[in-house]
Amino acid sequence: MTSSIGIIGVGEIASACVDGLCARPDHPRFFLSPRTAERAARLAEAHDRVEVCASNQEVVESSEMIVLSVLPGQVGSVLADLDIPGDRTVVSAVAGVSTEALTPLLPHDPTLVRVIPLPAVRERRGVTAVFPAHPATEEIFDSLGGTVVAADEAQFSTLSAATATMSAHFAFLTGIADWLEAQGWSRADAEHFVRGEFGGLATALEDPNTSLSDLIPAHETPGGLNEMLRAEWMDEDNRARLARALDHVHERVTGSSTSG
Ligand SMILES: NC(=O)C1=CN([C@@H]2O[C@H](COP(=O)(O)OP(=O)(O)OC[C@H]3O[C@@H](n4cnc5c(N)ncnc54)[C@H](OP(=O)(O)O)[C@@H]3O)[C@@H](O)[C@H]2O)C=CC1
């Protein structure tokens, strides 16, 4: 595995990666940007071989692989201040900023890989999209839960669009709790019940031998209540609206620029 990883942008997703990787006793050394001092200090205190550098450039000097995990609107100014040698690998987690947009910001032409890590990497259960194929990057993210490698950047961006569905999932669960509350349940009981109902379904998702479409009949009785709700709620119109909403997000992520 890569022996040293630098992190520029020690935010939510990068710290989830560091926590996840540091669960392995043989984890790489980490060199963190000093910008988010409190979070970087927590990571350095929690794990062996994790150091906070004096500057972003020191992160670059110390690391074989540099994970770039700032917000899309920050990436231009962050890279303008850095000199990244051509023998480094830059792994960009920055959403929606294409290789074409990043390349002019990396004049020494380091290897550039794009990834979409998800928060579950912290528990080593996050499947990360990677483009292009890059064995060292895949090894890192395989150890955090798995990877899918896109054949081209257009295909990669479809997974970026798919990640936009997470909060809608929670909005769906909130809608069920809202309905229960409107029927007279306390908010606490309604939420407790919905959390239990859906938390229990995670196990079904973990079985790779059952396709998602097979999980539908596995969770309904013919002519039963689940079938009734699904047919009325997730009808053709609703599925088409979901596909259209994904199209719109996809259009947004593919029309990217470094100004985010
Ligand atoms: N969260 C997620 O689930 C996912 C996020 N992403 C992408 O990953 C990137 C990071 O997201 P996330 O972790 O959620 O965002 P955060 O806002 O939590 O993290 C961004 C970090 O970058 C730091 N930063 C800003 N400017 C600089 C700088 N000049 N030098 C060093 N660090 C700097 C910020 O510090 P400060 O707070 O001081 O500004 C902050 O700690 C984004 O592009 C996002 O789109 C991709 C997949 C999933």
From TrEMBL:
<protein>
    <submittedName>
        <fullName>Pyrroline-5-carboxylate reductase</fullName>
    </submittedName>
</protein>
<dbReference type="Pfam" id="PF14748">
    <property type="entry name" value="P5CR_dimer"/>
</dbReference>
<comment type="similarity">
    <text>Belongs to the pyrroline-5-carboxylate reductase family.</text>
</comment>
<dbReference type="InterPro" id="IPR028939">
    <property type="entry name" value="P5C_Rdtase_cat_N"/>
</dbReference>
<feature type="domain" description="Pyrroline-5-carboxylate reductase catalytic N-terminal">
    <location>
        <begin position="5"/>
        <end position="96"/>
    </location>
</feature>
<dbReference type="InterPro" id="IPR029036">
    <property type="entry name" value="P5CR_dimer"/>
</dbReference>
<keyword id="KW-0521">NADP</keyword>
<dbReference type="Pfam" id="PF03807">
    <property type="entry name" value="F420_oxidored"/>
</dbReference>
<dbReference type="InterPro" id="IPR036291">
    <property type="entry name" value="NAD(P)-bd_dom_sf"/>
</dbReference>
<feature type="binding site">
    <location>
        <position position="56"/>
    </location>
    <ligand>
        <name>NADPH</name>
    </ligand>
</feature>
<dbReference type="InterPro" id="IPR000304">
    <property type="entry name" value="Pyrroline-COOH_reductase"/>
</dbReference>
<feature type="domain" description="Pyrroline-5-carboxylate reductase dimerisation">
    <location>
        <begin position="153"/>
        <end position="252"/>
    </location>
</feature>
<dbReference type="GO" id="GO:0055129">
    <property type="term" value="P:L-proline biosynthetic process"/>
</dbReference>
<dbReference type="GO" id="GO:0004735">
    <property type="term" value="F:pyrroline-5-carboxylate reductase activity"/>
</dbReference>
